[in-house]
Amino acid sequence: MSNPAAQKTAITPRRDEDFPEWYQQVVRAAELAEPSDVRGCMVIRPWGYGVWENMQRQLDAMFRATGHRNAYFPLFIPLSYFAKEAEHVEGFAKECAVVTHTRLEVGADGKMKPASALSEPLVVRPTSETIIGATYAKWVQSYRDLPILINQWANVVRWEMRPRLFLRTTEFLWQEGHTVHETEAEARAETQQMVDVYAKFAREHCALPVFIGEKSDSERFPGAVQTLTIEAMVQDRKAIQAGTSHFLGQNFARASGIQFQSREGKQEYGWTTSWGMTTRMVGTVVMMHGDDDGLVLPPRIAPTQIVILPITPKDETRARVLEACDALQLQLRGKQFGDAPIEVEVDRRDLGGGVKNWEWIKKGVPIRVEIGPRDLETSSVAVSRRDQPVKSKDSMSIQEFAAVAPELLMSIQQNLYDRAKKFQEENTRVIESKKDFYDFFTAKNSNKPEIHGGFALAHWDGSREVEEQIKKDLKVTIRVIPSGESEPGKCIFTGQPSARRVVWAKSY
Amino acid sequence: MSNPAAQKTAITPRRDEDFPEWYQQVVRAAELAEPSDVRGCMVIRPWGYGVWENMQRQLDAMFRATGHRNAYFPLFIPLSYFAKEAEHVEGFAKECAVVTHTRLEVGADGKMKPASALSEPLVVRPTSETIIGATYAKWVQSYRDLPILINQWANVVRWEMRPRLFLRTTEFLWQEGHTVHETEAEARAETQQMVDVYAKFAREHCALPVFIGEKSDSERFPGAVQTLTIEAMVQDRKAIQAGTSHFLGQNFARASGIQFQSREGKQEYGWTTSWGMTTRMVGTVVMMHGDDDGLVLPPRIAPTQIVILPITPKDETRARVLEACDALQLQLRGKQFGDAPIEVEVDRRDLGGGVKNWEWIKKGVPIRVEIGPRDLETSSVAVSRRDQPVKSKDSMSIQEFAAVAPELLMSIQQNLYDRAKKFQEENTRVIESKKDFYDFFTAKNSNKPEIHGGFALAHWDGSREVEEQIKKDLKVTIRVIPSGESEPGKCIFTGQPSARRVVWAKSY
Asked: What φ, ψ does residue B72 adopt, rounded to 5°?
């Protein structure tokens, strides 16, 4: 049965028709990114990169406020360094890109080819624990040199066989924090602090409700003792890991030789952590907030928060309309939202008003403001919020709008979070039996077969066997073992004792 | 003969003893950067990266103000793409790092080795004209899609046989602008605009006086029609290229297939430009402003502009001193300098006052302020400017200092520029004969054999033969053909007609 209303959406297919394809179409329509001709590598277009720059700036301020400074380490890691930590190299071996040659020269067939073989191959960093560890080993001599609290903004490469824009790409952008501490307790506190920073950033800046907690052993970072994570649920009810913080114990310190003289005069290995968030966050925002008309951006991370659309049907009123638009822009730019002045753009392009309006809808700009000749007569503007139906408009006086713009933006930010939180709650269920669990993830009574159950909170006995069975049967894994007080119970699969319910879901 | 005064400098050797070694020592002592274990790749430490971050933020604002937006393109370039522009691939062939394999596996000897050969090798970008061109070819259909005005902040790799921190490294950080225009005139105007942006940035932000102009054919960017450059003179009187802007004509548009339908309905190739500035700028600042006690930073790019050093000889006054320091910090942070609030740090570390003071001297922080118990009694502070002799201190009231701090910083900024400008002028000479030219670059009457002549302004007939002879004889090249009105004359080497004097120098 056809649905006439649905046919009018700007994005085809709709979310409930084909979520993965809808996602690709939203990313394209918003001009966030596109695949490049290099397999698995994407081009991040200005609008997408603008979102990432906002994320960077805001996250960076949070890192600075917690005492971290930025630095930069080499892109290449000598193979022998990379192999120092056994679990680590094993975990990343399949994903490495390797530089084996330098120089190009013309071959016998007249084509350019690699010329000089390196004596030791170089791995293009998939993550930098080993190369940064080698440097820290030189810096750290005494407990007085600790802690080292450094972050790096960089590109990394993990060869990807099934790439998807932002979610899984061979090259991606990220930040990686790498710290060294005198004691285990300090390193554990740092690991917790940084996952809390990620949670705050996800919630308050990206409007993403998240679960915080620990990964099970099978999902731990290769070489880590403990991995903490924030996990979001997007609109197809799958989980997505949005940031991780690893307590590395003394594993990497031992591998890299990070040793120091302790307060007691003994030689000890440092305690290290690492933590990262990536351009995947942009994809997570798309999947969480987007609708059938395209992207919906939380105001705090939108490159343009308010777009002013001049309506200029007649040449004789054009100049006055544009003047009013510019005046409003100037006024709005003088106002603060979040950590920076409001970003306002006047779209002066000589295109039809409808075309321009739909472009901005698809790009997810939080507020659109139309000003036409008739509005000038009444000193009013027509205001549309991207979190409301696309055709809805509020008429208000220019002065009133200028006064309330920051609150409007904040209200959109809050509404997106509340909506996402409600969605997450509606699709998170405490499950007490194996049968209910299997039903939750396989239910056929839904007429939306692509919709997965959501988050199941269920007791688990801590065994890897159970995890593997569930993964095999349902493609469901433990996404996070929530922090907080334990609530003992019994594993719904084995009846063995369980310390707390854990979060199970299908995932990206 | 020993020089007792000179022995007291914080850096050994002094500039006039061994400039290259002095440079390395300043970079190390200021904790700007250090070599990594990956040949040719450096580690940029927090203080050095902080300088780069300031450069980035300020330059980025200038790019935005001229209509550019940031984006991100792949690190890897398929070899066949890279080879599309013949001069280009030839120019970079010797410097390419090449990814030939993915995956690691355990070899017969039990060691990890590269496992899967790629069907087409990937060049790690040494610059991105070809990979960005391939994307622009998809974006550009009509003149309505032009101009494209995009910049990228990225790492690039050019294999370096004789690396030097910041000046020549295998991996370096930079920005690369890549634009496409409808007409030759627009593209040429963009090329000029961006070199002017670089000149303004160098002069006003980095306190570097520069010559602006064109490169001779032999120094052009491989594949460009014209390369504009800014060229600075550092303290050993050598030239250093500090930023370049290339007019690429239709060469890369042709190679990448960037075609559009013109206003007249014809298919035409776009006119492209590219322009870049790198982490080499950090090294240039070191070589221009540093002295025998270490780094001297222009206030606008210093990560910390004012450091407050609490003098706390006695426990009983410690708390009050620290309180006064914190209060002053808070007051200063409320003041603007350049585009941001003043960056102020209170160094509370439990080290000797002399040790701390010398650390900050070597790091080149523009203003050091000491507050001790006796200062509290008189509500005064002892202020030291890094552009003055290190032992000089000005006593002034706390309130006065807080009031004049922004002007003090601006005065240091201006003084560094004036000093550098004077040095450049003193070492730039109009030369009218071949003999004087050779004498200028080989004079033996100086007791400083490591000192090179400086900049020679001399007429040149435009021939490559002359350039090659001079390079062979003196290691001197044409650094820049200055812009502006021509002043015809005769080549000092051949007597042939010359349109203007050009700048000759030894160079980095």
From this structure: -140, 130
Interacting residues of A496 by C-beta distance below 8 A, sequence separation 6+ = A461, A463, A490
A85: left (phi over 0), alpha (psi -120 to 50) or beta: beta
- For A53, which residue in chain B has the nearest alpha carbon? B70
* Structural contact between residues B271 and B250, judged by C-beta atoms closer than 8 angstroms: yes
Contact A375, A322 (CB under 8 A): no
Mean pLDDT score, A482-508: 94
Q: Under an 8 A CB cutoff, do B99 and A97 touch?
A: yes
Q: H-helix or E-strand containing A54?
A: helix A46-65
Residue type, B174: W
Query: What's the rounded Cα separation, in Å, for the pair B253 and B310?
Result: 60
How far is Cα B134 from Cα A387, in angstroms, rounded to an integer?
36
Judge contact between A62 and A47, C-beta under 8 A. no
| CA dist., res. B333 & res. B170, Å (int) | 38
Task: Give yes or no for a contact between A504 and A458, defined as CB atoms under 8 angstroms apart.
Answer: yes
What pLDDT, on the 0 to 100 scale, is given for residue A446?
A: 55
A36 vs B42, B135, B157: nearest CB: B135
Please name the amino acid found at residue A334: G
Locate the chain A residue with the closest alpha carbon to B279: A72
The CA-based dihedral angle spanning residues B160, B163, B164, B168, taken in that order and rounded to the nearest 10 degrees: 0
**Chain B interface test: which of A28, A34, A39, A43 (most B C-beta within 10 Å):** A43
Chain segment B211-238, per-residue pLDDT in tens: 999 999 999 999 999 999 999 999 999 9
Residues of A in contact with B121 (CB under 8 A): 101, 113-114
Burial code (b: 16+ CB inside 10 Å, e: under 16) for B353-365 equals eeebbbbbbbbbb
A332-385 tens-digit pLDDT: 999 999 889 999 999 999 888 799 999 999 999 999 999 999 999 999 999 999
ipTM surpasses cut 0.90: yes
B46/A69 touch (CB, cutoff 8 Å), yes or no: yes
CA–CA separation, A22 and B233 (whole Å): 56
| Contact call for B97 and A98, based on CB within 8 A | no
* A111–B104 C-beta distance less than 8 A: no
Contacts of B462 (CB under 8 A, 6+ apart): B496, B498, B499
What is the model's pTM?
0.96
Q: Which of A36, A100, A150 sits opposite B74 (nearest CB)?
A: A36
Which residue, among B212, B174, B178, has the nearest Cα to B195 in the 3D structure? B212
Could you tell me which of A371, A368, A363, A359 has the C-alpha nearest to residue A388? A368
CB contact under 8 A, A94 and B103: yes
Nearest-by-Cβ selection for A102 from B49, B72, B97: B97
Nearest-by-Cβ selection for B173 from A46, A72, A173: A72
Q: Is A71 close to B159, i.e. CB distance below 8 A? A: no
- Inter-chain residue contact B97 with A96, CB threshold 8 Å: no
User: Bridge partners of A81?
Assistant: none
Report d(CA A474, CA A453) in Å as an integer.
Answer: 11
Contact A101 B100 (CB under 8 A): yes
Q: pLDDT of A445-476, one tens digit each?
A: 555 655 668 999 999 999 999 999 999 999 99
- CB contact under 8 Å between A89 and B104, yes or no, is yes
A46 CA to chain B: closest CA distance, Å?
5
Q: Which of B102, B152, B179 to mutate to test the interface with A (most CBs of A within 10 A)?
A: B102
Measured in residues, chain A has a length of 508
What lies within 8 Å, CB to CB, of B211 at 6+ separation is B230, B231, B232, B455, B479, B480, B482, B503
